[in-house]
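Before the break, one more example. Copy the sequence into your notebook; we will annotate it together after we see the structure.
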Amino acid sequence: MSNSKPSKLLPDNVNFFPTAVEDFLGLDKSQQIKVIKALQKISKAPSKFGKELENQAGRPLAGYRSIYVDKKSIRIIWKVTENETIEVAIVAGIAERDGMLAYKLVSRRKNDFEKFIEHLMKEQT
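Here is what the structure looks like once it is written out:
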């Protein structure tokens, strides 16, 4: 598990869960550009940007954050961790805004995603 990034245009404090890289690469180029621009904004204050998620039936995502991109057609979901005093946004999933698709996607990945975060934090210490 390495520090996965789909673009050199992203700041150091934005990382991707490996399957979120696949989500990103599945978008068309114009959508990818919009996602990168949103992630650049998120990087400035990962815990202040977007909507804070809560646990709901079938979607235990408290501690995660979410925003819409591309005229609300895409949703990005990430979790904030701290590396010393720097907030790090780790993207858990990117999906078309099709009902609850993005939330369900990240909910299915949650256990592996949490292990990925633990591994990343150990690598950086």
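The mean pLDDT is 88. The first helix runs from residue 18 to 25. Try to locate both features in your own notes.
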